[in-house]
Amino acid sequence: MAALPELKGDGRDLRIDACRGIALWCIFLDHVPNNIGSWLTLRNYGFSDAAEVFMFLSGLTCALAYGKARQSGGWTGVIGRTLWRSWDIYVAFLLLMLACAIIVHLAGSGHLADESNTRILLEESGVTLAHAAILQYRPVNTDILPLFVLYHLLFAPLLWLLLRAPNATLGASLLLYALVHVFGWTIPAWPNGHWFFNPLAWQLPLVLGAWWIIEGKRFRPWVTSRAALVPAVVYLVFSLIIALSWSIKPLEVLLPQALLYPTDKSNLAPLRLLHFLALAVLFVSFVPRDWRGLTTPVMHGAIRCGRYSLPIYCLGVLLTLASQLALLDISEGLTMQIALSVGGVLVMIGAATLLNLIKIKPRQQPHAKAVEQPTRFELVINPMTARVLGVHIPPALLACADEVDRLKMLFAPVRESGCSADPVPAVAHAFGPPAKNVGSRTVEPAP
Question: Which residues cross the membrane (predicted)?
């Protein structure tokens, strides 16, 4: 059975946190409508966007986290952690839904209520909350949270299958993905009848990420080879031209109409999946684990956001609503768009920094140094004290320096074990049993 790698101490791969943090920034920028900041994201330069990146990275982190739980607590620990995490996300989703409804209600904006899909929650609260409780209703931009509730609930059996038959499990995931596109399978939702992110299709990048943790070392040489790199670059150039044609009219005239809108995000269209895989090939080939760019201030901010992905994602949804209100009520100008984009990202970084400070324990702070432990003990023999304690020291031992050195060696177990060790057994072993009666005290023989 395959074994999951174990991260120890500073072995955490910062690339995962950095990419997840950047994906959170991109999701926020893309969610704000008519935002100039979205030109910094993947959406305008290819078929896929930050959603595929975020889902794949979630598979990576789930495999690592639950793999460590399995190593320490067995499958009981894995199931416990998956249930607890799923509950966390479920509660976060419900609270976020209520927060969105409150913001829209206080803003009094009917247009925003329609765009955020909260009008039905405000007008038919009872039935809407009932459907939200079973994950059938979701305001706009919260769709991904119910998805993760389901995936975390099912990750324990998925991990069990991946550890025993990783390639067969990935093949089954690909088969399910293909059947979704052939037969149109989905899970019921309310009130529009379908999930924006079809769980049966979007499971594939999650499974792919978990599979990469288990089988990635075997396939990495092929992924980074010229045979994979050249087609990936060609495909990325092709998708770049198509994506630019959506915004640049002269390019649209030059391309066949069938190629203009080839992507279906709800069911994870194959062209989107291939675009993400091409990006992954380039990333693995050119961004090493010890990449120096990870030490820059921008990457530090991304890493912090990536480590607290759930609260930062929820914050991003609320910032999206606030940005929409600002654009509607104050100004839709370029300056406002830039200010909202930069300000939103800075708020996310600040919140992640605050969460990091709250989570750090005193023993983890850099200035809290450990108390230096003694590493050496010297034996000083006082013949008079030894006589009172009933310890007999042969005269020849005191007269011979070599014998004194040998006596020090008897205390090596005490020195090696540090201050926490009990020196009495070693002393007793060195000198033999003490006298039974010393004054009124009774001294038991050493074991």
Answer: 45-66, 87-107, 144-163, 170-190, 196-214, 226-248, 268-287, 308-328, 334-358
Q: Are 434 and 391 in contact (CB under 8 A)?
A: yes
The structure's pTM equals 0.78
Sequence-distant (6+) residues with CB within 8 A of 287 are 15
Percent of the chain with pLDDT over 70: 75
Q: Which pair of structure tokens corresponds to residue 290?
A: 């010890």
- Residue 88 binned pLDDT confidence (cut-offs 50, 70, 90): very high
117-144 burial string, b = 16+ CB within 10 Å, else e? bbbbbeeeeeebeebbeebbbbbbbbbb
Nearest partner of 379 among 427, 418, 446, 421, judged by Cα: 427
Q: How far apart are CA 198 and CA 380, in angstroms?
A: 77
Interacting residues of 31 by C-beta distance below 8 A, sequence separation 6+: 141, 316, 317, 320
The number of residues making up the chain comes to 447
Q: How confident is the model at residue 371 (pLDDT cuts 50, 70, 90)?
A: very low
317 contacts 100 by C-beta, under 8 angstroms:
yes
Position 265 scores a pLDDT of: 92
Identity of residue 175: L
pLDDT at 368: 45
Residue 70, token pair as written in the block:
């399995």
b/e map 295-323, b = 16+ CB within 10 Å: eeeebbbbbbbbbbbeebbbbbbbbbbbb
The alpha-helical segments, DSSP class H, found in 224-296 are 226-245, 249-254, 270-286
End-to-end Cα distance, the chain: 46
CB 302 within 8 A of CB 21: yes
Distances (CA, A) of 195 to 51, 98, 170, 186: 15, 19, 23, 8
Residue 436 is encoded by which pair of tokens? 């039974």
Split at pLDDT 50, 70, 90, the class of 382 is low
Give residue 67's Cα distance to chain centre: 13
Give the type of residue at 176.
Answer: L
pLDDT at 128 over 60: yes
Residue 146 CA to residue 91 CA, distance in Å, equals 10
The pLDDT value given to residue 393: 63
The angle subtended at Cα 331 by Cα 330 and Cα 334, nearest 5°, is 150
Q: For residue 17, what are its two tokens?
A: 């946190």
Decide: 185 and 179 in contact? Cβ < 8 Å. Answer: yes
Reported as a pLDDT band with limits 50, 70 and 90, residue 421 is: very low
Cis ω for the linkage preceding 270 (within 30 of 0): no
Q: Residue 241: what pLDDT?
A: 87
